[in-house]
Design brief:
The chain contains three helices and nine strands, in the order βββββαβααβββ. By secondary structure, the protein is an alpha+beta fold.
C-alpha cells in the first residue's frame, strides 16, 4: 500500500475506532488510556481513547466509550462481528500519565486506575498484552499503523511547574 492510500483517523477523548490495513490511527493522551487490539493475520485493528476506567454506579445503561469498561467491550464486540476472535489479537496499552499538580495525584489516581482496569479487562477477555507504555508524568502522542501493527509513541514530560520549562524547582 502506498503512503497516499493510508486513511488517517484522529481519536478524540471518548472515541474508539475499528478498521483494516488502510488506516492509521492517532491520538494524544494524558491520564486517558488507549487500548490497541491488532489481529496480525487479518490486519485489522481497534484503538480506544478512554477518559475514565468505569462509570459511576447507577449511571445510564447506554454504552459509552468514554469509559474503559465500555470502550473495550465495544471494540471486542465489533471485532467479533467481523468474525475475529479477540483472544487471537495482540494488545498494546498507552497513557495513564500523571497530569495533576504534585499532591493532587495521590487523591485522584485517574491515570493509574485507567491503566490497571485496562490490564484487568484484557486479561478477562483472554487477550495477551505484548507492549505497554503506561503511567509516569506528562502526555503521550500515539500513532497506530493497522497494516503492520506498529505503534509509535512519544512521551512528553510536563513543563516545570515553577518556571514553565523542563526541569525541577530550585
Amino acid at each position: 500500500m502506498r503512503a497516499l492510500d493510508v486513511i488517517e483517523v484522529f481519536l478524540q477523548p471518548g472515541e474508539y475506532f475499528v478498521g483494516g490495513a488502510d488506516y492509521r490511527i492517532r491520538t494524544l493522551l494524558g491520564s486517558c488510556v488507549s487500548v490497541i487490539l491488532w489481529h496480525p493475520g487479518r490486519r485489522v485493528g481497534a484503538m480506544s481513547h478512554f477518559v475514565l476506567a468505569e462509570r459511576a454506579a447507577g449511571s445510564d445503561l447506554m454504552m459509552d466509550s468514554r469509559y474503559g469498561t465500555d470502550a473495550i467491550w465495544l471494540m471486542v464486540h465489533e471485532l467479533m462481528a467481523a468474525n475475529i476472535n479477540p483472544s487471537q489479537c495482540q494488545a498494546k496499552l498507552f497513557g495513564g500519565g500523571s497530569m495533576f499538580a504534585p499532591g493532587a495525584e495521590e487523591v485522584f489516581h485517574v491515570g493509574q486506575r485507567n491503566g490497571e482496569v485496562a490490564r484487568a479487562l484484557l486479561y478477562d477477555y483472554g487477550i495477551h498484552i505484548v507492549s505497554e507504555s503506561l503511567f509516569g508524568a506528562g502526555h503521550r502522542q500515539v500513532i497506530f499503523d493497522v497494516a503492520s501493527g506498529d505503534v509509535w509513541v512519544r512521551q512528553v514530560a510536563p513543563p516545570d511547574r515553577c518556571s514553565g520549562k523542563a526541569g525541577s524547582c530550585a
